[in-house]
Amino acid sequence: MKYLSTRRRHPAAKPLILVLALFLVGAVYALVMPSTRVSAAPGLSQQVEQGKALFQVSCSSCHGLNGEGTTQGPSLVGVGAASVDFQMGTGRMPMARPGQQAPRKKSQFSQDEISAISAYVATLGAGPAIPNATVVDPTNLTDEEIARGGELFRTNCSACHNITGKGGALPNGKYAPSLTKVDTVHIYEAMRIGPQQMPVFSKNVITDQDAQEIIGYLKSVNGSASNGGGLSLGSMGPVTEGLWAWVVGVGGLIVLAAWVTSKGARSK
């Protein structure tokens, strides 16, 4: 009669095998799957850290320590760097009082500080980025492209901003600000983020080429030292021209009618 010899396994064998299996699975996964983490450059990482420190000092009272938003200010998760660069670069943020329409004014922050805060907010969630300088530079546009920019502006923007970008009134006490003397990068950013009452114009609606041509048109009509002679009438387009034509034309007819009437009364 043969006896089969059996080995007793150590009680810790099964846990050790399980740990080893998990380790092997993790190692294989790390080797096979591409890394989704993007390693930031040392300079960018330092900029983000600087931006975070500035944000927590200057912005967190309204937007929360992590940009999550509060009752005083909206969440900044997913707004992108372009939104911060626009709002802070035009001096609209920080606001003096929540709820009012923020006017354009001189910024309280340097461009380096704005860039740092923008870089930090960009890490909170994907959103529109600050455009490259070549995208907003209209200097190489042809006359035909600038003319096309004028057509695009009149179709999409002039109802609020006026035919030459001088601004205009909106319902409920709001207004569309003037676009004269505005940096080209901020004009582009406004199209992409839709600040305040302005709608968002995505790249599917207004392409980068379209945006560049609109910028070229605005700089063309507002950049010349002369208006070509005559009264500008505020450069408000046919509305003010028609108003003055009515006032002068009808007013002249009234004066003429009164004069004829007075002459007729004297002759009697």
> In the CATH hierarchy, what is the superfamily of the domain at 133-223?
Cytochrome c-like domain
Query: Helices and strands: which structural class?
Result: mainly alpha
The tally of strands reads: 2
The CATH topology assignment of the domain at 133-223 is: Cytochrome Bc1 Complex, Chain D, domain 2
Gyration radius, rounded: 32 Å
Task: Give the helix tally.
Answer: 10
How would a textbook summarize the main sheet? Answer: 2 strands, antiparallel
What CATH first level of the domain at 133-223 would be assigned?
A: Mainly Alpha
* CATH-scheme architecture of the domain at 133-223: Orthogonal Bundle
The percent range for strand residues is under 5%
Low-confidence stretches: 1-5, 33-40
Integer average pLDDT: 83
How far do the termini sit from each other? 158 Å
General form: elongated
Please write the string of helix (H) and strand (E) elements: HHHHHHHEEHHH
Question: Which strand order does the major sheet show?
Answer: 1-2
Give the fraction of residues assigned to helices. Answer: 40-55%
